[in-house]
Amino acid sequence: MIVDDHVLLREGLKQILDLEEDIDVVAQAGDGEEAVAKALKHRVDVILLDINMPKMNGIETLRRFKDLGITSKTIMLTIHDDREYLCETIKIGANGYILKDSDADSLIKAIRDVKDGKTYIQPSVASMLIEELNSKEKETNGDLLKIEALTKREYEVLTLVAEGLNNREIAERLFISEKTVKNHVSNIFKKIDVNDRIQAAIFAYKNNIKKI
């Protein structure tokens, strides 16, 4: 489902996505209220959600999705001026972020990745988010202490979460069971004080966490 208050943008995105055999645009919405109603009706796999909309903006809409138990994966459509709003959507639990002026290949990759349980953060968006987060936080050694609390295996898993891999893919990469990966991810979330994979990925980017 595509949610944006600009009809031409919605139609343009639909034309691009309709060219892909594995992607079917089943609904469109022009504002948050309409998006909630159609999300409840269609129960789509992925929702492209604009942040700036009338009646109910993207942040309020995303929060409403969560409150109503809507399990559709959500990719936020953004422009460079939306950085403050994006930080808020991290807390609520969006699954991906992409700029409105991205090329078709990036958009299609984002949709497929999120549908498969991965996260997708466009590199330029990640930089923007980190800049905004850093501008709001005083420099402390808090993150360093959190990183030091991770085991070597948890650190490895965190780097792969930051790459956007899901639990099955991480298990295959590290030759361990998917259940073990799930336990590691749960422990990582507790140790670095985040609630989901997007927040974990942003934490990794912000602290320049890389493969060992």
TrEMBL record:
Transmembrane segments: none annotated. PROSITE patterns: HTH_LUXR_1 (PS00622), HTH_LUXR_2 (PS50043), RESPONSE_REGULATORY (PS50110). One of its GO terms (biological process) is phosphorelay signal transduction system. One of its GO terms (molecular function) is DNA binding. Residues 143-208 form the HTH luxR-type domain. Residues 1-115 form the Response regulatory domain. It comes from the Bacteria. The modification 4-aspartylphosphate is found at residue 50. Pfam families: GerE (PF00196), Response_reg (PF00072). PANTHER family: TRANSCRIPTIONAL REGULATORY PROTEIN DEGU (PTHR43214:SF39), TWO-COMPONENT RESPONSE REGULATOR (PTHR43214). This is Response regulator transcription factor.
